[in-house]
Amino acid sequence: MNRKIRYTGKKPEREVFEIFNSTMRELIEDDPHVIYLDADLMGSLKTQELWRAFPKNVFNTGIQEANMIGVACGMYLNGMKPYVHSFAPFTSRRVFDQVFLSIAYAEKSVRVIGSDAGIMATHNGGTHMCFEDVAMMRTVPEACVVDVSDPVMCAEFLKETKERPGLTFLRMPRRDLPDIYCPGTRFEEGKGMVLREGGDVTLIGCGIMVATCLQAAEALRQEGIEARVIDIVTIKPLDRELVLESAVKTGAVVTAENANVIGGLGSAVTEYLAMERPTRVLRVGIEDTFGRVGVESFLREAYGLTAEHIASEAKRAIALKN
Amino acid sequence: MRMSARTQLEQTAWQIRLGIIRAISSNHGGHIGGSLDLAELMAVVYSDFMRVKTEEPRWADRDFMIVSKGHAGPALYATLALKGFFSSDRLENLNKTNNLLPGHCDRNKVPGVDATTGSLGQGLSLACGAALSAKITGRDQRVFCVTGDGESAEGQIWEAAQFAAHYKLDNLIAFLDWNKMQIDGTNDEVMALGDPVAKYQAFGWDACKVNGADVLEIQEAVLRAVETADGKPAMIVLDTVKGQGARCIMEMANNHCIGFPDSLREQVMAELREQGRVLGMEVED
Ligand SMILES: Cc1ncc(C[n+]2csc(CCOP(=O)(O)OP(=O)(O)O)c2C)c(N)n1
Ligand SMILES: [Mg+2]
Fold first, then answer.
1. Spans in chain B with pLDDT lower than 70
2. What are the pLDDT digits (tens) for A240-253?
3. Which of A148, B5, B138, B158 has the most neighbouring CB atoms within 10 Å?
4. Could you give the number of structural domains in chain B?
5. CB under 8 Å to B233, separation ≥6 — which residues?
6. Where does the pLDDT of residue A1 fall: very low under 50, low under 70, confident under 90, or very high at 90 and above?
7. How many CB pairs under 8 A join A and B?
8. What CATH number was assigned to the domain covering residues A193-321?
9. Once rounded to an integer, what is the mean pLDDT over residues A22-30?
10. How far is the CA of B182 from the centre of ligand 1 (A)?
11. Residue B285: inside a domain, yes or no?
12. Interchain CB contact of A228 with B (< 8 Å)
């Protein structure tokens, strides 16, 4: 068993929003130049206490996402290290020009956090359910795009990217993300994590789908199929080496993501393998459709983001090998 | 134009509140504060001003209602059910997976809804487009639009404000639900709005402020806006209390989006029954 891994499928020790709070507090106490901006959604991450505690580091912009990105950029120009948060649709599609131009093209260093991406918008429904943020952010040159799969990873990326130049985009749920990694696990941009070894097929997941890939691999083992499981960690830059090595090793790949397969992780993997080593890749994810209201379990069924679906796609990919 | 009497309008507002509670309690939660405080407005606009056909929701000559603060879906839905666009039983489908009634206003799923909203700041622009189109085609249509005070931090609101004045959209009648609250606290704590009447006036609008809990004050202001053809869009600022009409909700520190257990439902219903008694209305169980 992998020493870094502690996945049990149970509720996490600490929810993502708790990790976010403690990590931002640590960062601010450690470095007075760290700034956290939010657009009237502190309530969703329960960060109001930080707001009160650090009036020189934490600011509420009100419901002004575009302005918030611009303000963050101005603060960077004057020596600050800004982190901005809102729900994922409002820090991606709502502000794409500001993100592209003021942050990325102008080579500033800003961390953009989108919470409740994809189906995790649950009861907020179709208007708030963004499946397109990954595709959009992947097209921004030099961006780092992360779909957070576990609380430890959330903390690590918040800390590790504090001075990273350009756009860093983190999408994450606010809660209900299981523990996968042991505390102290280190992550690197462009380096995926092999969570499980297997020679028959590779399951590559990101975000909430990493745990689902682990469940699928367990189910496949019952049927005598050994799946390699990878958490891609950064969708961009893509760990090409690991993707290629896995394709060579297993000859079949299934990707799994809580985002539109158009432009998402599934696209990234197929685009690369098509050029480097044509391999059968089946994509589990949102099939180019809009979001809708529902609880997570319902939405997972509705969009096929389940272990059963990954397992059946894995078997199909294996059957298609020759 | 025949205007409804106070009691009639208060009864309607009361029925709308009942519908809001029915919807939100069936979902065990939802955006209650900013829905309840629109009951008086909805009662007035739909009783006396909206020219719509329930059997033909997309009738080309209809008046428009664009709820820009889209999380107030329950207020609009309760009104549309009362008006007869669909059965009030449908209210129990709020946020259910059958997608019959998504919490945020959805024009493709709910008859009578003119605009899909939920990403704040966009509705006033839609209202401008609808109002300008009526001008171009010469159709006698009014466009009503409901904005939030937190929402008014969005730049797009003020782009639309400028646009509406520039194109002299006097068929546009907008409202601002001035409850002084948003998610993270009061407007003053989060992003101060200042004096909204003065702001809209500075943008070239006819703007006034009324008590948003007083049906006749609202009625009078809308009537004046409808009858004034001075080339200026109208902004009616509704001085409200978030959650108004249900004391136990109003008094919560934060009633923006809350869980709604049966115990709370009982508390609210007790209040509504008492109000109903005064209005000569009964709750059917
Ligand atoms: C663009 C956008 N940003 C953020 C949100 C999340 N959100 C939903 S309601 C709300 C507060 C709205 O406050 P206000 O406009 O005052 O509404 P009201 O008090 O009338 O409920 C926020 C921040 C959103 N729906 N859209
Ligand atoms: Mg408000």
1. 285
2. 999 999 999 999 99
3. A148
4. 1
5. B131, B164, B165, B169, B170, B172, B173, B174, B205, B206
6. very low
7. 91
8. 3.40.50.920
9. 98
10. 7
11. no
12. no
